[in-house]
C-alpha cells in the first residue's frame, strides 16, 4: 500500500520556510518607511481579492508569502513605522519577535503549574524582576510576606476587570459570586479614565449606572475632593462604594491622577484602589520619572503594558496584586479534571486562578519569553536609555531610541500642565 502523506511540515521544510519568513520580516522592517502609514484601501477591498471559498488544495508557502506582499500588505496600517503616532506606541523588537516564535514553537499550555512548570516559574520570576526595575513596592513581589504577586494578562482591560471583580468580592465577603449583585455596589474613576472600566462594570454585573465618573482638574487629573464628596454622598444614599481606578497616563492627554491623595480616601472607606498605568508605567524604568508612581505603595492592584514602551509584542499586560488571596478566591473554580498533587500541596502558583479564562494560549502563557529576551540582549541599562530624554551613551543605539525619546517627552505634561 502507498505510504500516507503527513499533514505536518517536515523539520527540514519547516526550517526552510521559517528562514524565508524571518527574511521577509527583516526585509519588511528595513523598508517599512516606504509604505504609507495608514492603509489606503476601501472597505471590502481586501476581501474582494481573496478566494470566495476555502481552497481544496494547499498552496506552496512561497506563493502564500507572495499573497502577503500582493494583497495583505496593502491593507496594513504600519504600527511599527517610525512615522506612526496614532493611539499608543506599540513597538516590537527583534528579540521579542524571536521570543514569540519560541513560545509558539514550544506550544505549551500554562493554565496550571503542572501543565508546564517552566512556563509558570519563568513568568513569576520575570515579573518579580520588573518590580525593582520600575521602583514598585516590594509587596507586589511573589515572595513578599504580604502575599502579593504578578501575572501576565492580555491587556489592561482584562487586568482592570479582574481588579474590579476582586474588589466586588472583598466588599461582599464573596457573596456576590454566589448570589449576584444587588445593585448597591458603586465604583469610581475620573472623566478621563479609559472606557474599559465602564465595560468592566457591565461585565461584572455592577452596571454602568453605578460607575461614578469624577470630574478632573485643569491638568485632566481626578479631583480627590470631588471623589471624597461623591463617596460620602453614595454612602448616605445607602449604596456601597467598593472600587476606585486611578490612572497613570490617561488616553486623551497622558494625565496622572494624584494616587496618594486618592489612596487616603480609599483607606478611609476600605475601597479597593487599582492603578492603571497601562500607558505610562514603563517610564518608571528611569529613576527621574518615578514620581509617576507616588502613592502606588498604597494600591491594592497595579498594571502596566510592556507592549507599549518596552519593546514587547502585543498583547502583554503585567498585573500585580498586593494580596493575591482575594483575586484567587474570586476567580478559582476547581473541577475534578484539574485536580493534581502540585496544586493540592499549595506550593505552586496556578495562573488559571489569576484571570478570566482557564486556558492560556502559548504566546500569552509564555509571553514572559518575550519580556525576557527583549530585555536580556539589551539589558536594563539600554532599556532605560530607550525611555530617557537624555542621550544614550551609545551613539549606534541612539537612532533606534529616537522615537521612544519623542514619546517620553509627553511625560512632561505632568510638569508643564497643558492648560498653563
How does this structure look, described?
With 420 residues, the chain is α/β, with parallel strands linked by helices. It has 2 domains: 11-86, dopa decarboxylase, N-terminal domain; 120-360, Type I PLP-dependent aspartate aminotransferase-like (Major domain) (Aspartate Aminotransferase, domain 2), CATH 3.40.640. The chain has helices spanning 11-30, 45-48, 61-72, 94-106, 117-133, 156-171, 175-179, 196-203, 224-236, 259-269, 306-309, 324-331, 341-345, 362-365, 368-375, 379-386, 395-408, and strands at 149-153, 185-190, 211-214, 240-247, 272-276, 301-304, 317-321. The longest helix has 20 residues, at 11-30. It is globular, with a radius of gyration of 23 Å. The model is unreliable at 391-420 (pLDDT under 50).
Secondary structure elements and their pairing?
Elements: H1 11-30, H2 45-48, H3 61-72, H4 94-106, H5 117-133, E1 149-153, H6 156-171, H7 175-179, E2 185-190, H8 196-203, E3 211-214, H9 224-236, E4 240-247, H10 259-269, E5 272-276, E6 301-304, H11 306-309, E7 317-321, H12 324-331, H13 341-345, H14 362-365, H15 368-375, H16 379-386, H17 395-408
Parallel strand pairs: 2-3, 2-4, 4-5, 5-6
Antiparallel strand pairs: 1-7, 6-7
Helix pairs in contact: 4-15, 5-15, 6-8, 6-12, 9-10
Amino acid at each position: 500500500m502507498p505510504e500516507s502523506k503527513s499533514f505536518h511540515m517536515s523539520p527540514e521544510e519547516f526550517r526552510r520556510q521559517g528562514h524565508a519568513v524571518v527574511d521577509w520580516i527583516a526585509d519588511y522592517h528595513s523598508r517599512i518607511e516606504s509604505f504609507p502609514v495608514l492603509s489606503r484601501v476601501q472597505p471590502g477591498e481586501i476581501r474582494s481579492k481573496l478566494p470566495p471559498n476555502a481552497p481544496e488544495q494547499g498552496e506552496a508557502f512561497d506563493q502564500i508569502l507572495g499573497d502577503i506582499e500582493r494583497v495583505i500588505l496593502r491593507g496594513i496600517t504600519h504600527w511599527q513605522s517610525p512615522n506612526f503616532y496614532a493611539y499608543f506606541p506599540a513597538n516590537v523588537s527583534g528579540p521579542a519577535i524571536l521570543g514569540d516564535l519560541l513560545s509558539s514553537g514550544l506550544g505549551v499550555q500554562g493554565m496550571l503549574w503542572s501543565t508546564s512548570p517552566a512556563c509558570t516559574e519563568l513568568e513569576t520570576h520575570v515579573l518579580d524582576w520588573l518590580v525593582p526595575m520600575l521602583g514598585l513596592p516590594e509587596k507586589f513581589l511573589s515572595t513578599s510576606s504580604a502575599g502579593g504577586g504578578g501575572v501576565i494578562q492580555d491587556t489592561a482591560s482584562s487586568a482592570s476587570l479582574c481588579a474590579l471583580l476582586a474588589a466586588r468580592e472583598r466588599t461582599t465577603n464573596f457573596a456576590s459570586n454566589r448570589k449576584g449583585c444587588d445593585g448597591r455596589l458603586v465604583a469610581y474613576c475620573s472623566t478621563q479614565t479609559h472606557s474599559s472600566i465602564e465595560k468592566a462594570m457591565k461585565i461584572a454585573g455592577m452596571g454602568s449606572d453605578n460607575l461614578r465618573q469624577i470630574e478632573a482638574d485643569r491638568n485632566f487629573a481626578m479631583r480627590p475632593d470631588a471623589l471624597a464628596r461623591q463617596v460620602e454622598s453614595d454612602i448616605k444614599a445607602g449604596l456601597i462604594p467598593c472600587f476606585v481606578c486611578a490612572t497613570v497616563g490617561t488616553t486623551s492627554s497622558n494625565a496622572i491622577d494624584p494616587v496618594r491623595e486618592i489612596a487616603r480616601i480609599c483607606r478611609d472607606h476600605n475601597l479597593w484602589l487599582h492603578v492603571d498605568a497601562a500607558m505610562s508605567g514603563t517610564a518608571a524604568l528611569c529613576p527621574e520619572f518615578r514620581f509617576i508612581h507616588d502613592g502606588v505603595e498604597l494600591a491594592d492592584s497595579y498594571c502596566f503594558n510592556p507592549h507599549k514602551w518596552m519593546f514587547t509584542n502585543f498583547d502583554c499586560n503585567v498585573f500585580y496584586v498586593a494580596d493575591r488571596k482575594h483575586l484567587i478566591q474570586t476567580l478559582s473554580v476547581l473541577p475534578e479534571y484539574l485536580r493534581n498533587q502540585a496544586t493540592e500541596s499549595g506550593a505552586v502558583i496556578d495562573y488559571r486562578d489569576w484571570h478570566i479564562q482557564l486556558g492560556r494560549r502559548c504566546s500569552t502563557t509564555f509571553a514572559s519569553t518575550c519580556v525576557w529576551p527583549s530585555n536580556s540582549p539589551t539589558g536594563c541599562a539600554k532599556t532605560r536609555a530607550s525611555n530617557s530624554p537624555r542621550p544614550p551613551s551609545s551613539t549606534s543605539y541612539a537612532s533606534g531610541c529616537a522615537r521612544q525619546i519623542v514619546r517620553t517627552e509627553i511625560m512632561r505634561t505632568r510638569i508643564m500642565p497643558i492648560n498653563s
